[in-house]
């Protein structure tokens, strides 16, 4: 990704955070003599005035829909902010190295602003923006994405796809495009009087079919390249990338099984500033052209390149369950067996999930597969929520109810202490583990402990479960392990409350997980599964109003660490003051001529 654009995007994301407090006007803040309960008006769904003894305190009700709507609403001031940031006068991210029309563009500075504004509109929140900027700038251009286009997409959504690719190209992101032309081929075969034949879902390709397919694929490839060229995208149509053997000549004739991918041709194209555009045709070692399914070709390309994203553009926009609802996420490690047992998981859906699992099993855990509608490409690439069906290997989430069940106590302590370096931190964690030994809890974590959550169940003193401790690495946020952990918590605890600092960079994520929230003095109380008038929730709310984040007491590691740090700081202050006093006394004695005898 172009470094200057990255700097501009980061500046605008910082503007978003800096402007956030001013979005709520004074009339939208309730000040109370006993303290202030403030709320961010951008994520407000409805506000309820509470009676005594809460005297004009306000409740912010927020849910997933409200939070996402707020993110979209926030784009407007961001777009305005982008115009205030003077973009450097730079050329497009990569000067197209071709003699095509790819250089025809508006003035560089205006175009840069336009790209940045479009990027911000695609990003759901500052957290998502920072994460994905880091993600996309952490890999080489060749490892960004493989995007598969079906023949129907080329026919019905050519312009939408090309404009999305233009956007990526101008950000300095170079996906590798591979396409098929199945529907067009069926139509041409029918016109030529050739009956399409399939065996086990694979097209039987005789010599006549192969000849028609060859001409068609070349035409569709050039049509795509020409349209991208018109928009200013430097592309390179590549042939000879796939080497294949006959899959089974007796059964399918001229159908290939890919044995090798020529990565060098792809890498050189990207290094020169071109987006590679490939057909799914392959060649045998002796030069015979072979037909390969475009999905299969995209998978083999992904195995060779190991990209962050593998994207299948689909008219349907994702996979659907038995009730017709779109499946937004699939965590294969945790859900595959259950999915395969579902009565609705049949035919194409079943085959697609199995093929994607086979692919992801060969790729790094950071890789993912997305099945999306062409119009949602930017949203899928730049937000957590995405738009279609996102499939990852994910992580199996472990669940334990005692310290003894942790396989590695040292790893547990190291996880609890990470990013919490401070005075007496190790001793505080040791005392916290002792506390867990004596009290009921449920801990959720992945094998690598990128995410660890500790939930205290309802008790006599508190009738609602509380999320006492949550620690997540940056990698854990990027790989969505936090989503998987939270999903498991929600299965076990239908009601839950937790607190977060208002300065937490992942605050938007917590809003999405909550049914409602309160904010006071820099802390936010979140909850789900109950109404604010619920008998179980009222005591929790009372504790928060009077004690803030300290309400969770010894069950919350953050509270323990703060107390330990404050105690250590006070001890150092007293020691320093005593040393100063002794030094002053010595100087005074010396000034009076008094010294040791």
Automatic annotation (TrEMBL):
GO (cellular component) term, any one: mitochondrial matrix
Enzyme class label: transferase
Short name of any one Pfam family annotated for the protein: NAT
InterPro entries assigned: AceGlu_kinase-like_sf, AcgluKinase_fam, Asp/Glu/Uridylate_kinase, NAGK-fArgBP, Vertebrate-like_GNAT_dom
GO biological process, one term: L-arginine biosynthetic process
Keywords: Amino-acid biosynthesis, Arginine biosynthesis, ATP-binding, Kinase, Nucleotide-binding, Transferase
Reaction it catalyzes: N-acetyl-L-glutamate + ATP = N-acetyl-L-glutamyl 5-phosphate + ADP
UniProt entry tagged with the keyword Cytoplasm: no
E.C. number: 2.7.2.8
CDD domains documented for this protein: AAK_NAGK-fArgBP, DUF619-NAGK-FABP
Pathway given in the UniProt record: Amino-acid biosynthesis; L-arginine biosynthesis; N(2)-acetyl-L-ornithine from L-glutamate: step 2/4
Cross-referenced SUPFAM superfamilies: Carbamate kinase-like (SSF53633)
Gene3D superfamilies, A to Z: 3.40.630.30, Acetylglutamate kinase-like
Keyword Nucleotide-binding belongs to the record: yes
Molecular function per GO: acetylglutamate kinase activity; ATP binding; N-acetyl-gamma-glutamyl-phosphate reductase activity
Ranges where the N-acetyltransferase domain occurs: 398-551
Full protein name: acetylglutamate kinase
The species this protein was found in: Ustilaginoidea virens
């Amino acid at each position: 990704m172009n470094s200057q654009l990255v700097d501009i995007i980061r500046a605008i994301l910082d503007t978003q955070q800096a402007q956030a407090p001013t979005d709520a006007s004074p009339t939208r803040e309730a000040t109370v003599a006993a303290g202030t309960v403030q709320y961010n008006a951008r994520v407000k769904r409805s506000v309820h005035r509470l009676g005594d003894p809460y005297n004009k305190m306000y409740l912010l009700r927020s849910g997933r829909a409200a939070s996402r709507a707020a993110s979209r609403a926030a784009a407007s001031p961001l777009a305005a902010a982008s115009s205030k940031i003077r973009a450097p006068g730079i050329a497009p991210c990569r000067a197209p190295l071709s003699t095509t029309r790819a250089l025809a563009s508006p003035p560089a500075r205006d175009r840069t602003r336009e790209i940045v504004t479009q990027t911000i509109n695609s990003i759901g929140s500052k957290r998502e923006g920072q994460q994905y900027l880091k993600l996309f700038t952490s890999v080489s251009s060749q490892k960004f994405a493989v995007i598969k286009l079906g023949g129907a997409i080329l026919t019905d959504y050519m312009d939408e796809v090309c404009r999305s690719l233009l956007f990526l190209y101008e950000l300095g992101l170079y996906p590798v495009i591979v396409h098929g032309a199945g529907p067009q081929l069926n139509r041409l075969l029918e016109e030529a009087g050739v009956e399409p034949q399939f065996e086990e879902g694979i097209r039987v390709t005789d010599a006549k079919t192969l000849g028609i397919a060859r001409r068609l694929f070349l035409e569709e490839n050039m049509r795509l390249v020409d349209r991208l060229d018109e928009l200013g995208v430097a592309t390179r149509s590549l042939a000879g990338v796939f080497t294949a053997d006959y899959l089974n000549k007796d059964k399918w004739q001229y159908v290939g099984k890919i044995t090798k991918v020529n990565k060098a041709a792809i890498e050189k194209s990207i290094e020169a500033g071109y987006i590679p555009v490939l057909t799914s045709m392959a060649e045998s070692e002796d030069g015979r052209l072979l037909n390969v399914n475009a999905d299969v070709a995209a998978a083999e390309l992904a195995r060779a390149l190991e990209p962050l994203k593998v994207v299948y553009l689909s008219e349907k926009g994702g996979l659907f369950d038995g009730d017709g609802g779109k499946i937004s996420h699939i965590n294969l490690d945790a859900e595959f067996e259950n999915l395969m047992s579902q009565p609705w998981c049949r035919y194409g859906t079943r085959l697609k999930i199995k093929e994607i699992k086979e692919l992801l099993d060969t790729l790094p855990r950071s890789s993912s597969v997305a099945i999306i509608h062409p119009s949602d490409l930017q949203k899928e690439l730049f937000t957590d929520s995405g738009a279609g069906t996102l499939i990852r290997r994910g992580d199996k989430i472990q669940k334990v109810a005692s310290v003894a069940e942790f396989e590695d106590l040292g790893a547990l302590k190291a996880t609890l202490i990470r990013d919490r370096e401070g005075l007496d931190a190790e001793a505080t964690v040791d005392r916290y583990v002792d506390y867990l030994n004596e009290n009921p809890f449920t801990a959720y974590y992945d094998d690598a402990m990128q995410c660890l959550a500790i939930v205290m169940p309802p008790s006599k003193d508190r009738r609602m479960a509380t999320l006492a401790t949550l620690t997540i690495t940056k990698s854990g946020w990027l790989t969505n392990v936090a989503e998987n952990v939270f999903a498991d918590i929600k299965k076990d605890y239908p009601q839950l409350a937790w607190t977060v600092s208002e300065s937490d960079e992942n605050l938007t994520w917590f809003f999405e997980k909550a049914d409602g929230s309160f904010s006071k003095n820099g802390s936010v109380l979140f909850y789900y599964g109950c109404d604010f008038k619920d008998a179980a929730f009222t005591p929790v709310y009372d504790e928060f109003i009077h004690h803030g984040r300290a309400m969770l007491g010894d069950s919350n590691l953050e509270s323990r660490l703060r107390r330990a740090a404050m105690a250590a700081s006070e001890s150092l202050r007293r020691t320093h003051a005593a040393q100063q006093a002794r030094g002053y006394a010595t100087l005074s004695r010396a000034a009076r001529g008094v010294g040791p005898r």
